[in-house]
Design a protein that fits this description.
184 residues; alpha+beta; Trna Endonuclease, Chain: A, domain 1; 2 domains; 11 strands; rod-shaped
Amino acid sequence: MTKKWQSYEELAAYLLNRFAKEFGLKRVEGKQKVPGRRSGTDWEIDAKGVRENNEGFVIVECRRYTTLKQNQEKLGSLAYRMIDTGANGGIMVSPLGIQEGAAKIAASENICNVQLDADSTPQKFAMQFLNKIMAGVSETIRLSDSLSCELICTCKQCGERFTVKGNGALCPVCAEQIRSEGSA
């Protein structure tokens, strides 16, 4: 049974986990709270990428904005959360990508930009990052079968095997001989 995905964040976490190795991650976990070291506050993050051998983590931020690219304010906010929590990096997931100023922040703060189509599902998706494109396609294939049978019998007169047509118990040769003898 196909799970109904309730949110863009859950889908992003699922797909990032599926392709975790592409990001240098062991796994990606879902929404959770991470403590701030400097501020003393807890940050709710959309997902958390755990590095191999538990050597740090990255914060995943998801924004399903379909009319605007992510601006430098959004990336600056993510950058501060990374600093406050001690994260090694970040991933910004959005359908349209990031603006020029945001790209400068992403480059300087180790934030990866991931574009994920807003209407994606676990089976049908388009995801672009690091000059790579991952896609899922779902198609319906209909199969139909046909069956044909052939009844093969042994002729009661000569013992030859033949394909039965109609109700014949004799091979066509023997049946023809009997017909010819009957008409003579």
